[in-house]
Model the fold of this input.
Amino acid sequence: MNDDVIRFMNLFESSPELQTEYAEAEANYPGSLEIRETVVEEVLIPFADNLGFHFSLTDLRKYETRQYLCSHRDIEQDPDEPDDDSHYWLLEHGWTNDESVFRDS
Done:
């Protein structure tokens, strides 16, 4: 997994100032906020990149999927990752269409 996703999420979750700054960047996004993958690519990824965290939409999706699975299946979670109170950029906004990732192996 891309460690920058984990580091960014740790920083974001612990910084109200950063959350406010991101909310302003998202509010100024001229496109539709309903198309979450585009918002992530156009706003979140550049925002994180400017802070020195480099990851892709796919990296974020893998991270969120792992977080979701850990919190809903009692899978052991990496202690360096945020806990179940994590913010989901994609999953909270309807990106759950890949049901294969939620099937038992």
Q: What stands out?
A: Confidence is low (pLDDT under 50) at residues 93-99. The two ends are 19 Å apart (CA to CA). Residues 57-73 form the longest helix (17 residues).
